[in-house]
Amino acid sequence: MKESQPIQDNINHNVEEEQEMNDNVKDEQNLETEENRQDEALQQEPQEQVNEDEAAGSAAEGGAALSGELAKLQAENEEYQQRLLRAQADFDNFRRRTLKEKEELGKYASAKLITELLPVIDNFERAISSAGESADTSSYAKGVEMIFRQLEGVLKAEGLTAMEAEGTPFNPEFHQAIMQVESEEYEEGIVVEVVQKGYLLKDKVLRPAMVKVSG
User: Fold this and answer.
1) Which CATH topology does 110-214 take?
2) Quick one: which of 152, 148, 158 has its CA closest to 110?
3) Beta-carbon contacts of residue 213 (< 8 Å; ≥ 6 apart)
4) pTM, entire model
5) Phi-psi region of 107 (alpha: psi -120 to 50; beta: other; left: phi over 0)
6) Whose CA is closest to 19, among 32, 11, 8, 5?
7) Vertex 97 angle, CA 93 and 98, to 5°
8) What phi and psi, each to the nearest 5 degrees, are found at residue 208?
9) Domains in the chain: boundaries
10) Which of the two residues, 40 and 85, has the higher pLDDT score?
11) pLDDT tens per residue, range 143-186
């Protein structure tokens, strides 16, 4: 029994040494693994920093582009508003000017006609002033007739024409019947006499003719 004790001690010692060696190996492996992890972390940190820097740069570029586009849109919007205000002001000025011209046109529409009638008035005044000086009534009547023709010419130039109603069928659009008479010369419904002349201004009835119509 005493001889077997050293052998057992040796075995135990060997087992302890082997266990210690295994522990040392495991420690070395763990240490190596930890170092590898640290190296990988150190290697990843620059790459992550690069990625963060690139992302920050892209965001900055995108923000600058967005700001530039926004400034461009704001400038265009301001320009369009200025154009709208100018167009509105021009339209208001045009409306006021047109209204003023319309009022002046209505106010002085007869200026041209009156200007053309002034010579007729002058001739009438001369005829009246000379009526008492001249004993020749035929000359006076001739002068008055000339003035009448002058007046008639002015009115005709403006589009005024007298209706030729006598002997034509009665037309209520052009004629105003004041009396119905018996007539051997005309059949029924014919204008036999014009009491007051009717006038057309171009193609519009200015005044219907007052007539007598055969019955």
Assistant:
1) Nucleotide Exchange Factor Grpe; Chain A, domain 2 (2.30.22)
2) 158
3) 170, 175, 177, 179, 180, 181, 189, 190, 191, 192
4) 0.53
5) alpha
6) 11
7) 115
8) -70, 155
9) 110-214
10) 85
11) 889 999 999 999 999 999 999 999 999 999 999 999 999 988 89
